[in-house]
Every structure is written in structure tokens, then in C-alpha cells.
Amino acid sequence: MTDGWTSGNANEDAADNRGWLIGHFLDPSHGVRATTDVEVKWANHPAGDRRPEWTADDQRTTLLMLISGEFRIHLTTGTKTMTRQGDYVMWGPGIDHSWEAIADSVVLTVRWPSAT
């Protein structure tokens, strides 16, 4: 990392934080990646991987985008299966979710604000 900017590889840089690359939970030594404005996650999910439990009363806005694979998101308001690169689902405060990887998948999640 250099003064005010950084570069790297999402697979490597997020590996120690359950896929989270940017957010309030990173140590300030991560520089511009440690922020309360936004959270970004780069996640590799093998087929069959799932989050069976639901989030509870999340009060942030979330964008989930499919990079590759087939990924299903369950929301308290409906379900969407993403199959094409670039497919996304976005939801606001008060909507809870769970998910499952139908095929090996890579997804990008952006959530804001970061501070809980």
C-alpha cells in the first residue's frame, strides 16, 4: 500500500477476512481499504455452498453481482437465481437474506454504509 491508494488481488487480499476486501472491520494498517463508507466482498463459492441462516434486521443497502457461475439469493421478499455474468440483486434496509451456490460461483458484494 502507498500513500492514499493501494492495489492488489481480491482473492489474496480478502482471504483473511472471509472475502471482505473493504470495510470498517479492517485494521487501519490496510489504508484506504479501512473505511466506514462501504464494504466490498469478493467471494468464491463452490457448488453446494450455502448460508442456511438468515441475516437478522440488517439496516444497510446491499448489491450482489454475479461474476461467474450460478448463484441463488433468498430475500424475505422473494428469490432470484443469477445465471449470467453481470446479473445482480440489490435490496435495502430491513430485507434479510440467505444464499446458495448452485454451481461454482464468484460473486461481488457491495454493502453500505459499513459501520454497523
Question: How would you portray this structure in words?
Answer:
The protein is mostly beta strands and 116 residues long. The protein has a domain at 42-112: Jelly Rolls (Sandwich), CATH 2.60.120.10. Helices cover 3% and strands 41% of the residues. It is built from one helix and nine strands. The chain has one helix at 10-13; strands spanning 20-22, 39-45, 50-51, 61-68, 71-75, 78-82, 88-91, 97-101, 105-112. The strands form two sheets. It has a five-stranded antiparallel β-sheet with strand order 1-2-9-4-7. The chain has a four-stranded antiparallel β-sheet with strand order 3-8-5-6, with no helix packed on it. Strand 5 and strand 6 (78-82) form a beta hairpin. The longest helix is centred in the first third of the chain and has 4 residues, at 10-13. The chain is globular and about 40 Å long. The two termini are 26 Å apart. The relative contact order is 0.27.
Q: Structural class, from secondary structure content?
A: mainly beta
Query: Regarding quaternary structure, how should these chains be classified?
Result: single chain
Poorly predicted sequence stretches spanning 5 or more consecutive residues: none
Average pLDDT score: 93
Number of strands: 9
What is the general shape?
A: globular
Name of the CATH homologous superfamily of the domain at 42-112: Jelly Rolls
Terminal-residue CA separation: 26 Å
Gyration radius, in Å: 14 Å
Write down the CATH topology of the domain at 42-112: Jelly Rolls
CATH architectural grouping of the domain at 42-112: Sandwich
Helix % is under 10%
Measured by DSSP, the beta-strand proportion falls in 35-45%
Sheet with the most strands, sense and barrel status? 5 strands, antiparallel
Order the strands across the largest sheet as they lie in space: 1-2-9-4-7
CATH class of the domain at 42-112: Mainly Beta
The string of secondary-structure elements, in order, is HEEEEEEEEE
> So how many helices?
1
